[in-house]
Amino acid sequence: MSMIQVQNLTFSYPSSFDNIFEDVSFQIDTDWKLGFIGRNGRGKTTFFNLLLGKYEYSGKIISSAEFNYFPYPVSDKSKFTHEILEEICPQAEDWEFLREISYLEVDAEVMYRPFETLSNGEQTKVLLAALFLNEGQFLLIDEPTNHLDTHARKMVSNYLKRKKGFILISHDRNFLDGCVNHVLSINRANIEVQSGNYSSWKLNFDRQQEHEEATNERLQKDIGRLQQSSKRSANWSDQVEASKNGTTNSGSKLDKGYVGHKAAKMMKRAKNLESRQQKAIEEKSKLLKNVEKTESLQLKSLEYKSKELIQLMDMSVMYDGELVNTPISFHVEPGDRVVLDGKNGSGKSSILKLILGKPLRHTGTLNVGSGLVISYVQQDTSHLKGKLSDFIEENQIDEQLFKSILRKMDFDRIQFEKDISHYSGGQKKKLLIAKSLCEKAHLYIWDEPLNFIDVYSRMQIEELIQSFNPTMVFVEHDQTFQEKVATKTVAL
């Protein structure tokens, strides 16, 4: 066991005037299974790069641990898998590799196949297994779930639960709950470390927000009341002071000493009230700095004239003359939200592409309603680059509405001026979702929309779908999202 101490860390990119981290301090134990959460663009991956020594910064990061990063960069994917694993962990024996990948339900035969022939999920699993065989290293795991199906996520979560000594960036709430015992959170105003899993952290965070909001409301009332009392006392003091040269109703002169004493007393009371008011204002200013506001999103879908939008009968996708999935049948009616669930490679994305009219080989029949308007969120974001204004013009989006949605999804205005290629993975995905929300459609087809997207935005999107009930066919491996959103599940 050792500690990683962060002291007065301040960092900003050379091209930016805004600090990613500003005078932050905390410490973590290298035995912890640490979940790392925060909004997109807050600096989670940047912090990993600071630990890895990639950037210069002010402050101190003190640690005796050796850091390693996942996903491990594989330079030559044409090599056999066992060769790549031996490069990652040269001291491990073959039987140790085989033992680790068996925990992750990966067949031993992948060891003797070119790495590039493995599915994305298999690549994720074997790289994690090899990295954990390096004794004495503290592993920095960056978004491992993005290429994992629902079953694989449970399996990898159980695998990580057996390990120790890692920081895990993930936005999948179930996944985090299954494998972490501490949470490191980048909040709006600070960085906090708490014991427990994601659910216990969220419960504590929400309670803190509720307490601060109640305290803020009380202080707001106190400040208003004290302002009124202060004004009355100041007025009384001025009136008494002005009466020093006056007379009583009976015509006798006022006692100036008495009047002066009373004026001083009133002034002292006014100053006390002002002091209490200032103290209340200072207390209020310390509150609500970490509130994560998620404004409600809106969606205006089109009403379809028929009772059925889509019908699939005995549909199977074919690759290289072979069937990818057993035949499936389902239909989509207005208000349905159909999730396609299955392992990686079972044809989920291909089914979506067939509905979109892509010319893929298949068996069975597909009937798509005439005049059906579809809005599509694709899985891949690697093509996104260039100016935001060009993206808006190219896709013929309402600029004001589009930027309003992005602002509600926690985009700073400064992001509108950046090249899209510099956006984080989550910000790129939000771009595609915001585009879809601007489009009036009968059917929304979303292919793994939540990859890289932060927890708060996931909940925001869940609330949107539950409020507006759009007709959807989607693929998403976040189990919590499935449970909250889907009305039908089609297993492939």
TrEMBL record:
- Coiled-coil ranges from the UniProt annotation: 263-290
Query: Cross-referenced InterPro entries, in alphabetical order?
Result: AAA+_ATPase, ABC_transporter-like_ATP-bd, ABC_transporter-like_CS, ABCF_ATPase
Keyword Coiled coil listed? The answer is yes
| Residue ranges of the region described as Disordered | 212-257
Residue span of the signal peptide, if any? none
Q: Where is the composition biased (Basic and acidic residues)?
A: 212-224
Pfam families attached here? ABC_tran
ABC transporter domain location, by residue? 4-213, 310-492
Keywords annotated in UniProt: Coiled coil
* Bias (Polar residues): 226-252
Task: Give the domain of life.
Answer: Bacteria
| Protein name listed in UniProt | ABC-F type ribosomal protection protein Lsa(B)
Q: Which organism is it from?
A: Paenibacillus allorhizosphaerae
